[in-house]
Amino acid sequence: MGSGVQEQRASLTQGEVLPLASSSQSEGLKQTRSVINSLFSGALAGAVAKTAVAPLDRTKIIFQGKLEAYRLIYRTYLKEGFFSLWRGNSATMVRVIPYAAIQFCAHEQYKAVLGGYYGFQGNVLPPVPRLLAGSMAGTTAAMMTYPLDMVRARMAVTPKEMYSNILHVFVRISREEGMKTLYRGFTPTILGVAPYAGLSFFTYETLKKLHAEHSGRQQPYSYERLAFGACAGLIGQSASYPLDVVRRRMQTAGVTGHTYRTILGTMREIVSEEGVIRGLYKGLSMNWVKGPIAVGISFTTFDLTQILLKKGLSRCL
User: Fold this and answer.
1) Where are the domains of the chain?
2) Quick one: pLDDT at residue 182?
3) Dihedral sign of CA atoms 58, 60, 66, 72 in order
4) What is the pLDDT at residue 134?
5) Which of 110, 134, 112, 132 is nearest to 123 (CA)?
6) Which CATH superfamily is domain 64-178 in?
7) pLDDT at 225
8) CA-to-CA distance for 92 and 88, rounded, in angstroms?
9) Phi, psi at 4, each rounded to 5°
10) Mean pLDDT of successive 10-residue stretches along the chain, which has 317 residues
11) Cβ 41 vs Cβ 104: under 8 Å
């Protein structure tokens, strides 16, 4: 009896040690780390990019919403100072950080799902799934953060005295205009963000793929990433710009005296009052300055943060 116990102990001591975690648990842990890394990298990318172009972003919103934008900007500068152009940036950060985190994380997840479905796991997706992954990522992020975008637009085009902070905007809109106002402009947002995000991610991923094929380097330099991102932003925002104008008009209708209710109705009114070019493409020249800078910074920050996090994680392990 005693010898049997000793033999059993010896076999346990000398035998193979069972793994502490199963392969499925290990895979789940790896997936969780990947999601957290993507969320953090995306949040940082969005915050850095939007802070860098905040004055131009506010000016663009005003330019879309007012007929004599340059006079309003000048009066704002004289009355409230240069840094007043950053007004609404706190609301922007509240929206952009979750939006960018969700968008970049969703894009990574959609790429993995579509890659597995089409047999391109770990490789660059074919063109159509590449475009689809970006569109779905942008749509997912927009659906989850839309009310914050509405609040940011309101704060950017109203006098400082009208809304004291982000919460005040929510309370006043809900009380005076109804909760559904927080989703005014939602449809053109989704219709606009799908081609915008799809083309942006598609262009950036395509340029990186072409770069790797022609240079032999899998990782572009930082300035190359910025250039690829700038091209992506230019193409994506130019394609979806009229819907962006419609979205802003519908969001700010409550404080501009207009009653925009439908996408087509808003477009007709803009075109009849201001014309096609001066109406639906108002502020596009500024968007060509702001957009490429913001998207280039965003994509570059995301990629470099992901690389740093993966290197740090590998060293820890």
Assistant:
1) 64-178, 184-282
2) 82
3) positive
4) 96
5) 112
6) Mitochondrial carrier domain (1.50.40.10)
7) 96
8) 6
9) -65, -40
10) 48 47 70 90 94 72 53 72 72 86 96 87 84 96 87 73 78 83 83 92 95 91 95 91 83 69 84 84 79 94 93 65
11) yes
Label each residue of the chain as H, E or C. Answer: CHHHHHHHHHHHHHCCCCCCCCHHHHHHHHHHHHHHHHHHHHHHHHHHHHHHCHHHHHHHHHHHHCCCHHHHHHHHHHHHCHHHHHCCHHHHHHHHHHHHHHHHHHHHHHHHHHHHHHCCCCCCCCHHHHHHHHHHHHHHHHHHHHHHHHHHHHHHHCCCCCCCCHHHHHHHHHHHCCHHHHHCCHHHHHHHHHHHHHHHHHHHHHHHHHHHHHHCCCCCCHHHHHHHHHHHHHHHHHHHHHHHHHHHHHHCHHHHCCCCCCHHHHHHHHHHHHCHHHHHCCCHHHHHHHHHHHHHHHHHHHHHHHHHHHHHHHHHC
pLDDT for the residue numbered 14: 47
Residue type, 302: F
Residue with tokens 């091209």: 231
CA proximity to 282, closest of 258, 257, 255, 246: 246
Residue (of 156, 38, 35) closest to 95 by Cα position: 156
